[in-house]
Amino acid sequence: MANAPVAIVTGAARGIGAATVHKLADAGWRVFAIDVCADDLAVPYALATTEQLDSVVAAHDGAVVGVVADVRDQAALTDAVKFAEEAFGRLDAAIAAAAVVTGGGRPLWETTTSDWTPMFDIGVHGVANLARATVPALLSQGPPRRGRFIALASAAAHHGMWHLAGYNAAKHAVTGLIKGLAHDLRGTGVTAVAVSPGSTRTDLLIESARLYGLDTVDAFASHQLLDRILEPEEVAAVIAWLCLPESSCVTGSVIHADGGFQP
What we know:
With about 260 residues, the chain is of the alpha/beta class. Helix 1 crosses helix 8, helix 3 runs parallel beside helix 5 and helix 4 runs parallel beside helix 6.
């Protein structure tokens, strides 16, 4: 493990974030798994718990380090990066998977700025905060650099969603942020990519189903050419590939891991 690559993953206690931690750790990576592990009064559903994060950590016999931190806290993310560098001497990839959905179930004109705030503070500013914390560490690796910065966007970044205008806006912002970051990284060898999943079996999708008055997330399957809901492990496999040296030609791009999503 002495020369094993090192990644930081946010939103790591469950869903696509947890699946990504598992996928990378199984492939020989050391991973810092970050999650807030606390509910938020502005988010109308339960967030991940310390028990869920501990379960992710326990599955990998020392290869995964759990860190309780909020992506809205720039200092906490910076400290996590310093911890990773001190512990393992390097950082090779950063994956921003933390996100929430709030203020949905109503048309835009019936929502308020406060309804949208958690989506932007966590799902957009949280991505930017992770980039501010990790990119200097990724650039500190001597050439040839192979650093990777990956953010989870969504099919909602590319298609309008009924009564989810705020979520549309937040995920569009993620793709714009990644495209801008990729230009800032031009010529460095460090890449920036967004991954846009379709309807994936996560707690966020369960909340989306609730907003639409649906009893099960499987009702969303008809919007995907695969005619089924995606599993987090499928999206995590795409993210893990993007962390490899073989993905070096992909930057400033959006990978549509969406099962052929059609609105």
